[in-house]
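Supplementary Text 2. Reproducibility record for the structural model of the 241-residue chain.

All settings were left at their defaults, and a single model was retained for analysis rather than an ensemble. We include the record here because the model underlies the residue-level annotations in Supplementary Table 4.
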Amino acid sequence: MSKIWIIAKKELTSFFDSLMAYVMIVLFLGFSGFFTWLFGSDIFMSGQASLRSFFSIAFWTLFFFIPAVTMGLLTDERKTGTLELLVTKPVSNWQIILGKFFSALLLICITLALTLPYYFTVASIGKVDHGAVWMGYLGLLFLSASYISIGLFAGSLTNNQIVAFLLALLIGIFFHLIFELIGSATGGWFGGFFNYLSLSNHYESMSRGVVDSKDVIFFLSVILSGLLGTELVLHKRTSSY
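Retained model, structure tokens:
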């Protein structure tokens, strides 16, 4: 566990050293704040003490931001040759993967923590459903962890950051939107199957304050699948070192 934390701390520090963290945090807060408070179905337009507008825009914002965060986690290591150096040390592929996974997740946690003033402000101006808010934040964490695992998998397939970014978006858009569209356009068990594969359906359920074991199991399955896929690719590429 100490090796995982060392890798996670190193990557998290590199995010802030390269200004990536600051840019992401400022852009995320800017987008989410604008649509939560000033534009569209914002809090004042809806007339309700609710953070539904924030969770809706965060759902889309994180979809684009997370691939930008993860695109360099493995591609840079491969491009500079440090991945080969890492695997020659007493560090396993899983420790490398989990270290990088938790570094990105910690960055997301920090970013979401900075939006807590939205919650306190809404709670001060009206009666808010506290359970729905906290479940919404939990849903964002599960959603983020899923996209981080997908981003790591995409990054393990190439040493080009742009390709990794686009590949993560391509894989992610199926879970984010396309599976739901297929499920809505079809019926029966076939439609139900694709609806179940939709991240948005599970996220929407949690953001309404509903905690269902099937939603948690689904998110954990996506996360584990992404991490397993990353490990398999890394194992294949590093087995000859």
